[in-house]
Write a structure and sequence with these properties.
- The structure is a single chain.
- By secondary structure, the protein is of the alpha+beta class.
- The chain contains five helices and 16 strands.
- The strands form four sheets. Strands 3, 4, 5, 7, 8, 10, 11 and 14 form an eight-stranded mixed beta sheet that branches.
- The protein is globular and about 40 Å long.
- The structure holds magnesium ion (MG).
- Magnesium ion binds near residues 20, 22, 69 and 189.
């Protein structure tokens, strides 16, 4: 059972599912040659894929091209279905920053065949998260910056105001077709700058005023 704790709080949340958004930043859509979508592109990761800051990430043997995708992560605090925008906002109780590790070569093959992305996105250690900060302590602002460094060099850096679908809209949309439960995580998509990692790379990610993580590729 994977759990999430909020900084300075005692309660532990059991993670049921990890809901992820694709194509939420215009420049990232362009860099992968994708088309923008009218509605959010949604996929799932299993809770078993979840790891925490300082845990290493192992490249699966069947891929030669694992990419980093840094993302704002939402922790859901209550059960939600068919939520309106206000209910969706209220259900987001904490923020973290995470990595949606992606096997780009595997995903490209799956896309060509029109098959689901499961083997490219759901492998062990493919979802890393920082610790979480309660919304009551800091509500993420569109002005907040998200940065990912590999071996000290900035690879991804963007302001959250570049998100096409903001957090409450994402949660509202997901709840229109799926019950979201307490402890579920929502990965909100990555900005441009995704690129390959190799064994030995050291990754550091942060959202200013929110949280940070570090990890190593093995
Ligand atoms: Mg992603």
């Amino acid at each position: 059972m994977k759990t999430i704790k909020i900084r300075n709080k005692n309660k532990e949340y059991s993670v049921g599912k990890i809901i992820c958004l694709g194509r939420n930043y215009a420049e990232h859509i362009k860099e992968l040659g994708n088309e923008p979508s009218e509605l959010p592109v949604i996929f799932l990761k299993p809770a078993s894929a979840l790891i925490y800051s300082k845990h290493p990430i192992e490249i699966p043997a069947y891929s030669q091209n694992m990419h980093h995708e840094i993302e704002l992560v939402l922790l859901i605090g209550k059960k939600l279905k068919d939520a309106n925008a206000v209910e969706a906002e209220e259900a987001i109780i904490a923020y973290g920053v995470g990595l949606d590790m992606t096997l780009r070569d595997v995903q490209d093959n799956l896309k060509k065949k029109g098959q689901p992305w499961t083997t490219a996105k759901c492998f062990d250690m493919s979802a890393l998260v920082s610790d979480f900060l309660a919304k009551e302590e800091h509500k993420v602002s569109p002005e907040d910056w998200m940065t990912l460094k590999v071996n000290g060099v900035v690879r991804q850096r963007e302001q959250l105001n570049k998100m096409i679908f903001p957090p409450a809209r994402i949660v509202e949309y997901i709840s229109s077709f799926m019950t979201i439960e307490e402890g579920d995580l929502v990965f909100t998509g990555t900005p441009s700058g995704v690129s390959k990692v190799v064994k030995g790379d050291k990754l550091y990610g942060e959202i200013t005023n929110v949280a940070s993580f570090e990890t190593e590729i093995i």
